[in-house]
Design a protein that fits this description.
Length: 399
């Protein structure tokens, strides 16, 4: 591990002033490896977005304290750094978003390509080569993907809605956001989940806030216990829990994405100042401006990730609380495999080519039809039009 990285706790002013907390070489790809070769595996990645250094700082600090617990670990922990080049330049990405590029066929083509790769594709291939051998073990594999946001707000998890991911995500005492993957594709977590990895994204707070590094550090300890690598009762985990609980006591434990405001450069989108994650908004609430004028919330709910940076294609999200009873109901529905009966619903038919997928005609199907699909763990793939295609992860059976 680079010495300058380990020194950062003693130099919070470096972070506050906006300087990068590592030397001119940038952080190493592998921040640390600990624990025996058998048992569960926890892959913890930080800095997939290069303007999010606090995740890297938090992870490096946590790993440096893990050395003293080496003998007590029941599995392997690997700490990885995402977009090293972009971290050095303090940019979300250089050529394209590294966390929107994880598509299996694309990765295969890149690994076989002989031509020089773009900055992000080079990072992608290196990361795949670190992660690939870890997938071969017999124990369960967990992913903790650390991020931060451009706007202010408390920590939360982003969970792809399989039963195993939910169970893992419920260990973190911060709000859990479901339904994100329906809006955003090609994430590392998406790619690994398709390969049976149990994983969550953890949003630790604002990009440059030292508290975001503290929360990322806390998330790491909770993930270690939740994955079974660390036995219950470790002081670090109890402290981590208290650290996260202090910011989130008033917030709903589970929410679902109801709206994504997608943007492109030509929109000239500018968020109005003063908004923050989990701020309540009403339908019609003025949130931003773009080339067509005022941008308002299309629905009541809570604001998530208002965009206060130049790069990125999500202006903001609106989420709404999900009741725990709803989660229990959906777990039971998945276990009984009620998707067998989905094509009995009006406006729903099986996809002629994709096994396990359904096509919903939105002119015929009622709004509740989509809710039933969500309960069963289905998510939309592709654009929203008259027809939407929904599919479900094959291994999401609650086993
Ligand atoms: Zn990010």
């Amino acid at each position: 591990m680079s010495q300058s990285l380990l020194n950062t706790p003693a130099q919070p002013d470096v972070v506050a002033l906006g300087a990068l907390p590592y030397g001119p070489q940038g952080p190493p790809r592998v921040l640390g490896r600990h624990g025996p070769e058998h048992g569960p595996v926890l892959v913890c990645v930080a800095g997939l977005h290069g303007n999010e250094p606090m995740g890297v700082v938090g992870l490096a600090r946590a790993l440096s304290r893990l050395s003293s617990l080496e003998e007590t670990l029941h599995g392997r922990v690997v700490g990885l750094v995402g977009n090293r080049q972009a971290l050095l330049e303090d940019l979300r990405f250089i050529d394209h978003d590294l966390n929107r590029a994880w598509f299996a066929d694309r990765i295969e083509a890149l690994r076989e390509a002989r031509a020089p790769l773009s900055d992000e594709d080079h990072e992608l291939v290196e990361l795949v080569e670190e992660v690939e051998p870890l997938l071969e073990g017999s124990g369960p594999i967990y992913l903790l993907d650390l991020h931060t946001t451009s706007g202010p707000g408390p920590a939360f998890t982003v969970v792809e809605d399989t039963l195993a991911n939910r169970q893992f995500g419920l260990n973190f005492p911060v709000p859990m956001v479901l339904g994100f993957e329906e809006e955003v594709g090609g994430t590392m977590s998406n790619y690994l989940c398709d390969r049976g990895v149990i994983g969550i994204g953890f949003e630790a707070g604002q990009h440059r806030e030292p508290v975001s590094a503290e929360r990322a550090d806390a998330a790491f300890w909770i993930a270690l216990e939740a994955s079974g690598i660390l036995s219950a009762g470790c002081d670090e985990v109890a402290m981590a829990r208290r650290r996260l609980e202090t910011d989130t006591a008033e917030l709903p434990p589970i929410v679902e994405v109801r709206y994504r405001h997608a943007i492109s450069n030509s929109d000239r989108f500018t968020m109005n100042p003063g908004h923050r994650t989990f701020q309540p908004v009403r339908r019609g609430h003025r949130l931003a401006r773009d080339r067509s004028g005022e941008v308002t919330s299309p629905t009541d709910g809570l604001l998530l990730m208002p965009l206060y940076q130049k790069q990125g294609d999500d202006g903001f999200f609106v989420v709404r609380r999900v009741r725990r009873g709803w989660l229990k109901l959906s777990a039971a529905m998945r276990r009984y495999r009620l998707e067998r009966f989905l094509n009995w619903l009006p406006g729903v038919r099986r996809h002629p080519e994709r096994a396990g997928a359904f096509i919903v005609n939105r002119r015929i199907a009622r709004f509740l039809t989509l809710e039933v699909f969500h309960l069963l763990g289905f998510r939309r793939i592709g654009p929203v039009g008259r027809y939407v295609v929904l599919t479900r992860r094959t291994h999401d059976d609650g086993a």
